[in-house]
């Protein structure tokens, strides 16, 4: 990077993971602003689940409840069918590429979202720190940022579910080796 690019560099855990996996892909996305030309089923599924949980969490927070199953189906319907039938209007895909999730996945997707709301991830309002809040940190002239999906703080312990990847709770060993989790811990 040039000194000008370095001075304006803002990193995130995801950006650093991409750089570690493939410096060329990172440069194409971050410096040259190239958009990816394909989509993937796991990325679409994870992104859709993330969008549903973000809306659901905000809804529960505004109502002051930890669980509200009555609204989950409406939120899933809105996001799922918008992705399937109106990809050009989908904010995650400005290029209008067709989604990879078939409409036959609707029932399974709804079941996963309802499980998540029912008992997998109830909103703990007493320990809620933030929903989709930016966290910032400066290190040696570089500014890093992260936006965890949701953060709960209880005493000196933070819980940070990641809705694209956190299907199970990590062991201490897995957590110690997970770069994104370490970044979020440093930002907190």
Key terms for this structure?
188 residues; alpha+beta; 3-stranded antiparallel sheet
Write the layout of secondary structure elements.
Blueprint: H1 3-7, E1 10-11, H2 13-21, H3 23-30, H4 41-63, H5 69-85, H6 106-120, E2 128-131, E3 135-139, E4 142-146, E5 150-154, E6 157-159, H7 172-176, H8 179-187
The fraction of residues assigned to DSSP E strands is: 5-15%
What is the tally of beta strands? Answer: 6
Strand order of the largest sheet: 1-4-3
**What do the pLDDT scores average to?**
77
Cα-atom Rg, whole angstroms?
Answer: 18 Å
Distance between the termini: 28 Å
Fraction in helix: 40-55%
Gross morphology: globular
Question: What can you tell me about this protein's structure?
Answer:
This protein has helices at residues 3-7, 13-21, 23-30, 41-63, 69-85, 106-120, 172-176, 179-187, and strands at 10-11, 128-131, 135-139, 142-146, 150-154, 157-159. The chain has 188 residues and is an alpha+beta fold. The strands form 2 sheets. It has a 3-stranded mixed β-sheet with strand order 1-4-3. It has a 3-stranded antiparallel β-sheet with strand order 2-5-6, covered by helices on one side. Helix 4 runs antiparallel to helix 5 and helix 5 (69-85) packs antiparallel against helix 6 (106-120). The longest helix has 23 residues, at 41-63. The relative contact order is 0.15.
